Amino acid sequence: MGMLRRMTEGNLKAPGGETVRVQLEDNLAAPEHARRATGQVLRRWGLTPLLDSVLLAVSELVGNAVRHGAAPVKLTLSRLIDGIRIDVHDADPREPRLPAPPALAAQTSETGRGLQIVSSVAAEVGVEQIRGDGKMVYARFVTEGDEK
Ligand SMILES: Nc1ncnc2c1ncn2[C@@H]1O[C@H](COP(=O)(O)OP(=O)(O)O)[C@@H](O)[C@H]1O
Ligand SMILES: [Mg+2]
User: Fold this and answer.
1) Short-list 7, 1, 2, 3, CA closest to 128
2) Atom from ligand 1 closest to the CA of residue 94
3) pLDDT tens digits, one per residue of 46-92
4) Residue of the nearest CA to atom 15 in ligand 1?
5) Which residue has the higher pLDDT, 14 or 106?
6) Which residue range is the domain that position 79 belongs to?
7) In a domain, 147, yes or no
């Protein structure tokens, strides 16, 4: 199914694992708001080694939800046994378009790179339809030494 997969394995929540939900406004301040909330949570969870990658994904996925999706946009952070999953939900059921194969994409193109970049730093990126309520795009990250 390419780079965007259905949610399957590798998503075991930590026992008693915490979940944090962040309601975002539907405007261009949303990515920054999301980044700030995510930074706080990762520090609290002791996952600062994942900070750069997770913040990058949060920026891209929240930016996409605001720009290409529909309000309301919600961010959920879930503590996994071996890392963290971020879910960005928006009310538009249309799924992200798969990035074009590198051979077809202009090397200088400045759009259509976001999901490619997220895929390069995440253990898994996928999309899940929420019946009658849009979809969520998610990315999963694992701590060093816990590959997959
Ligand atoms: N949340 C979303 N809802 C609907 N379509 C999306 C969403 N996220 C991405 N897309 C679609 O997938 C394409 C690829 O996304 P991306 O790789 O981030 O590139 P960009 O945002 O620069 O266009 C977007 O151009 C858009 O058409
Ligand atoms: Mg984008």
Assistant:
1) 7
2) 4
3) 999 999 999 999 999 999 999 999 999 999 999 999 999 999 999 99
4) 112
5) 14
6) 4-8+17-100+110-142
7) no
